[in-house]
Write the structure tokens for this entry.
Amino acid sequence: MSDSQLVMQEDDHQKIMAIIQRLAKDASAKSIFIVDKNGQLIAEAGEMRGVDTTSIASLTAGNVAATSGIARLIGEDEFPTQFHQGTSDNLYTAIIAGRIILVIIFDERSSLGLVRLRVKKWGLELSRIFEEMQKKTEAGSAIPGGSPFQEITDDDIDNLFSD
């Protein structure tokens, strides 16, 4: 998958949310985050309230970048999954569609085996969605004037900022 910017439509976001909400339930996870490799939070689901999601997103992306550097040093492209075990909470990450980081936080209500099993199933669905988004983005940029903002008019902008 290329490094171009993805354009996410509302229906794409709804599909992603439906999948991660189902994944959180199926894996008995506390929380699920979808983060791009630049550290931008795309979506979240679960029960973790009051968590600094901006920090989780950027630190997770930094962790993936650092371990990808280690992987290259030993002859691997990257480590597609990572697991961190804590005293009460655990963190599992998986690279989806080559550019998206799926972050799962879980506790004793779940297990690494269950999380991995559910990620295998729902990760394929997420990958399919992000690959479709990439195709739509590339098709839109191949068309002259194919900007995602082409349908926005001056009246739309005025209405947005009017009192």
About this structure: Residues 68 and 79 are 6 Å apart (CA to CA). The chain has a mean pLDDT of 86. The beta strands are 31-36, 41-46, 81-85, 90-96, 100-106. The chain has one domain: 10-161.
